[in-house]
Amino acid sequence: MTRDALILVLATVVSLWISWRVYKIFRNRGKHSLRSVAILVLGDIGRSPRMMYHAESFAENGFTAFVVGYRGSKPIPALERLPNIQLCYLPEPPPILKCIPFMIAAPFKILHQVITILRELLVNIPQAPEYIMVQNPPSIPTLALATLVSRLRGCKVIIDWHNTGYSILALKLHKKHPYVRLARWFEATFGRRAFAHLFVTYAMKDALVAQWDLKGLKLVLHDRPPRHFHRSSPQEKHDLFMKLRPVFIRYKELREYLPEYTLPYSTPFTDTASYPHNAPSTFPTITAYANDHRHPFSSNTSTYNVVNPPSLRPDRPALMVSSTSWTPDEDFGTLLNALKIYDQRACEINARDGEKLPKLLVVVTGKGPERERYMSEVKELEKDWKWVRCISLWLEAEDYPIFLGSADLGVCLHSSSSQLDLPMKVVDMFGCGLPVCALNFRCLPELVKHGKNGLIFEDASQLAEQLEYLLLSFPKAPHLISLTASLDKVTDSTTGDLQWCSWDAHWNSILKPLILHGITS
């Protein structure tokens, strides 16, 4: 066989194969696999909690859920436990694209995404799913691809609007940049016609419906914590802090800063010791603390009669957590400036008689592009700090809620590129009974009720004032205790204007009637 003939045969075979695949796609249009959904994340699946909760809720209501996204962080246990959830991992773009400037690499990255996403939605998912749920942002190319696949396979598209993609792009480029204008047109054009639209706030629903004349059903599905989120018990805290011992050892800045402890009897925050009845609320020195308590048994004895359950140490530092993606829409510098002021105020107040401010350990969770820059700045600042330490920590899905439930206070720096979304990190904190100080923006009061479940601040100086107000006389800090108790009353219930419930109850109330019966509640 000649070379030209061989090429002709190969071309014919390829053409027939492509024709057959296209024919199968169109032939099956309208023949769906009922009770099935493809959930398109276009990000790290394990770092997309809302979409993972969607998949779990669909699966628990009898749907087969195909979750399409990138491999990375470990997903929640339900995604690996439930048999009717399939994780469809996309291949990463070629590494060389990371070395090319953004505006040059973007078209090639999008082309790679187009090919890999279409392969999953058209080929690897053999029968057309009843629904395609798309996380937005990112908008490009997901909205257009979801529209294309819905036309080819007859699926119903549900867009879950977390934010607007063009507003996030405007943080990198100027808002009048041609790419931003193009992204806005793209998002409006391909996001307009969907079977249903889900919004995380009423403000987002009102704004996008007015601006882009969105068609289809429009529902507000607020972020809510999953049912297993709760305030951690002393035993859960003790177990977690024992597990985190390598972290305390790795950060040399913490070795002399934290109270002395002996595993498994004590951690920097918990202890199994018996405290005297007249123990003060804070112990002035580590030596005084050691002299005034005893462990229930000696490590040298082979038997013992009594083991005390863990309790919180009165000499522990206040534990504050800030969950961040280390991106430009969360100005970490605001927190650093507030911590500078807090350290100065602690030096002044603790030099006087009367109420004291505690040592403060700030744990910043999450991954993102600006982490290294800010943590390098923290290292320099800590050389002069006496009352504050700040570390960065990544927690797996099973440890994250326990850690939030073990903290004393949360801080949210989310400013929202669109001013229309709400930070899910605050929802998680509330689900774990953790009061929050949150940076103010347009629709934040839909979630944070000032003085009821948290405090709202405008700048670093106001945040520092709130930290002093809440932590004075810690651990018997009356204002912090009052705020925490107020939050406990509304968790897992519907009280007044807070209307608080778990993710499952909220999802079943809003989305379940739609996907099962095609109606809204």
What does this structure look like?
The structure is a single chain. With 521 residues, the chain is α/β, with parallel strands linked by helices. The chain has 2 domains: 209 residues, Glycogen Phosphorylase B (Rossmann fold), CATH 3.40.50; 183 residues, Rossmann fold (3-Layer(aba) Sandwich), CATH 3.40.50. It is built from 20 helices and 15 strands.
Strand content: 15-25%
Shape: globular
* CATH-derived topology of the largest domain: Rossmann fold
Question: What do the pLDDT scores average to?
Answer: 84
CATH class value of the largest domain: Alpha Beta
Query: What percent of the residues sit in helical stretches (DSSP H or I)?
Result: 40-55%
Radius of gyration: 26 Å
Unreliable sequence segments: 276-304, 491-498
Structural class determined from secondary elements: alpha/beta
The figure for the number of domains is 2
- The rounded distance between the terminal residues' Cα atoms is 68 Å
Largest sheet data: 7 strands, parallel
The CATH homology group name of the largest domain = Glycogen Phosphorylase B
Question: Tally the helices: what do you get?
Answer: 20
Strand order of the largest sheet: 3-2-1-4-5-6-7
Number of strands: 15
- Going by CATH, the architecture of the largest domain would be 3-Layer(aba) Sandwich
